[in-house]
Amino acid sequence: MPDDPASTTGFPDPAQTDDARRVPVLLPVPLATPLDYAVPAGMAAPAPGAFVVVPLGPRRIVGVVWDGDSGAPPPGRVKPLIEILPTPPMRPELRRFVERVAAYTLAASGAVLRMTMRVVEALWPEAPRLACAITEAGRAALADLPRRLTPARARVLDALHDGAAPMAEIARRAGCGSGVVRGLVELGWVAETKVPARLRDIAAPDWNAPGPALSPDQAAAARKLVAAIESGGFGVTVLDGVTGSGKTETYFAAIAAALAAGRQVLVLLPEIALSAQWLDRFRRRFGAAPAEWHSDVSQTQRRDTWRAVSDGRARLVVGARSALFLPFPELGLIVVDEEHDASYKQDDGVCYQARDMAVLRASLAQIPIVLVSATPSLETMVNVGRGRYRRVALPRRHAAAMLPKVVLIDMRQQHCGPGHFLSPPLVDALAETLEAGEQSLLFLNRRGYAPLTLCRACGHRFQCPNCTAWLVEHRLTRRLLCHHCGYAAPVPAFCPECLAAGTLAPCGPGVERLQEEVAARFPGARTALMVSDLLPGPRAAGELAAAMAAHRFDVLIGTQIVAKGHHFPMLTLVGVVDADLGLSGGDLRAAERTYQLLHQVGGRAGRAERAGRVLIQTYMPEQPVMQALAGGDRDRFFAAEAAARREAGLPPFGRLAALIVSAGDAEAADFAARALGRAAPQLPGVEIFGPAPAPLSVLRGRHRRRLLVKAAREVNLQAVVRNWLARVKLAGAVRLQVDIDPYSFL
Ligand code: ADP
Ligand code: ZN
User: Fold this and answer.
1) Which of 90, 307, 605, 671 is the most buried (most CB within 10 A)?
2) What is the pLDDT of residue 146?
3) Range in 144-148, 167-171, 235-239 with the lowest mean pLDDT
4) 600 lines ligand 1 (CB under 6 A)
């Protein structure tokens, strides 16, 4: 039986397994339920949570022993477990979390499990290292023949008196090459042996370290957060404070309290680019670096961090949404900073909203969670209104800082000149700010030089070969780039359509083009671009932010990564170049997001002694978003937005699910989408829209069709979708992505 791994690779003989002893094992593959495996004779049955190695087809794979008597019958016959790993078992709380996330998102449990074990190597103990130790013969040589030893050899043997160490380390201590040590090994005076690896010590944050004296507002807010930690149990607190009110200092007090109580803490941040500044601040306050968890962290570091979280050496982790799936044994507090941020929503693979799942994890762990924002999401505010979340407010800026004055510039009345994008009032404000020796920030949420390139001679537009999207010219890297799939091509010297040379024209502004305009108007100004694609990682972003804070630049030009968290004391002017950009498109959260983003960018101005102002260029000054920004009337805007959503039955007052069907060719996608459409349920309180081509109808070479389910709040949306999908059989080449509570409508 060549396809039976047990017979070919020396696994335990199935004939000797006791089939009566079976355990369900959940595997990190897209399967909805655990599979049954047999416990071989002589192996103690592993308890639920144990990490085990099992055969799956021709592979060996690590899974987790699940709860219950048995799982699904495996394909073929029940195969035996291969090995139980010596790592601490997955705790019940994390197992329940996996199940609940899967049930909520309609993802396969195995796909969610995979997110908890991204670094499989971490499940094995660290490989032992080789260390050199002096032997009896070596000691004798040192005592008997000291004069017949070369000085280098004598120094090596001396160094080994202090204990065993790796060869390189001994050579360093003795001040010689490692060849000398190897020579002694050959003589038998030194022996190399395997010693267990020592786990890296991680400096614990000092929760006793004094922080700054809190203002009365901050102190009152901090007292409430600390009380929640001391009384324990699940509870959601919304820390709602204007930009610059000192929210971070305030929740640091809660972190200190959780650490003091011997608990671990998880802080989620939306943007990796932010973590460098946050880490610095944390280090200054608590005297030790927290563990980091995000895509920019190396695989080795991740392995170490996973282990350190699991065995409790790491007391605080700061990370992106995936940090939510780490195996904390003693989690005592979760903080979600910038909780309104859309990047908490993952919309491929397992589609989940990390903020909401953080609340779920806190409730399963029975611990407090703090959601932090200057512009909380409508979902969160509605939960405050319903009495589910408690709100703690910081209504004023820290110390003497005032909130900036916001002015709308009606672009219908302005002439910027051809190929220019800064209106005269904004140019004047820039000039005044430069004159005063202060700093400015220009915000435009468009990477690259121009969002569209076309040929002036024939009208040819450059489109991505894999997506329904224009290619964006990036002049600094001399490429045309697709912002959806990453396709890149060099900027051609002539038009590929009509072959005319020198006719390619950029249309519209990107940040690179804006920098050119600023440099042309203010040749003496020192400008810098802050854009994710020009910054290789959080360190680089942190260095650029530090340089800006140190006033090495006069004008910072950036996309949304400038909006969050930064504190630049000399920054007094914020110019929003195209405020209307986020308002187009069919996104139900467009107005809310535009408000949050622009409010946040504006919040960078005037954070210290000098007063700030915000100039917003818009073609729609009468739009409620713009009026709310100018009038500083957040609550009225959110009330109006909530009323509109309630009226339309949209989240958080109704429920949505998106079904995205994709296939390599358009016919297959259409066929599958129509089959889904025909099988759509007809139920009270449930409406189905589509199928329709997705706005990005081709993405990464796949043709996409969308269906949208809209349901009343009391409908069990997951059950409706699950039953629906169970009735439809899709061809193997068709992919179906279910997105409960979608944020992206592309
Ligand atoms: P937010 O997170 O609300 O935008 P921050 O926590 O970043 O505000 O605080 C804004 C600025 O005020 C920061 O430079 C911070 O160091 C400073 N700050 C806040 N609270 C205090 C305090 N109690 N004492 C001294 N400085 C503070
Ligand atoms: Zn593309």
Assistant:
1) 605
2) 63
3) 144-148
4) no
- Cβ–Cβ < 8 Å for 741, 657: yes
Whether 241 lines ligand 1, by a CB cut-off of 6 Å, is yes
Q: What pLDDT was estimated at residue 314? A: 93
Tell me, yes or no, whether 74 lies in a domain: yes
Examine residue 210 and state whether it is found in any structural domain, yes or no. no
Domain of 566? 401-446+525-652
Q: Which of 239, 269, 281, 567 to mutate to test the pocket of ligand 1 (most atoms within 8 A of CB)?
A: 567
Q: How many domains does the chain have?
A: 6
Ligand nearest to the CA of 600: 1
Over residues 688-715, the pLDDT tens digits come to: 998 988 888 899 999 999 999 999 999 9
Same domain? 343 vs 406: no
Q: Is residue 519 part of a domain?
A: no
Residue in 249, 255, 285 to alter for ligand 1 test, most ligand atoms within 8 A of Cβ? 249
What is the tens place of the pLDDT at every residue in 419-462?
Answer: 899 999 999 999 999 999 999 999 998 999 998 888 999 989 99
| Dist CA 253 CA 356 (whole Å) | 23
How do the residues of the chain divide into helix, strand and coil, expressed in percent and rounded to 5?
Answer: 35, 25, 40
Same structural domain, 293 and 164: no
Check the CA dihedral 397-400-401-404 and report its sign: positive
The atom of ligand 1 lying closest to the CA of 245 is: 3
- SS3 of residue 158 by DSSP: helix
**Strand pairing category for 735-740 and 654-663:** antiparallel
| Residues counted in the chain | 746
Q: First vs last Cα of the chain: how many Å apart?
A: 49
Joined together, the tokens standing for residue 525 give: 């100004």
Cα 550 to Cα 670: distance, rounded to the nearest angstrom: 56
| Residue 304: strand, helix, or coil | helix
pTM for the model: 0.85
For 35-89, how does the pLDDT look when each residue is reduced to its tens digit (9 = 90+)?
A: 999 999 888 999 999 999 999 988 999 999 999 877 777 777 889 999 999 889 9
Nearest 5°: the CA angle 606, 532, 295 is 115
pLDDT in tens, 149-161: 788 888 888 888 7
Whether 64 is in a domain gets the answer yes
pLDDT in tens, 375-403: 999 999 999 999 999 999 998 887 777 78
Cα distances (Å, whole numbers) of residue 676 to 423, 672, 681, 699, 709: 50, 6, 10, 20, 12
What string of DSSP letters covers 173-227? HHTS-HHHHHHHHHHTSEEEEEEPPPPPP-PPP-TTS--PPPPHHHHHHHHHHHH
Across the range 626-644, mean pLDDT stands at: 89
Q: Which amino acid type is present at position 126?
A: E
Q: How many CB atoms lie within 10 A of CB 217?
A: 18
- Protein residues within 5 Å, CB atom, of ion ligand 2: 464, 466-467, 482, 484-485, 487
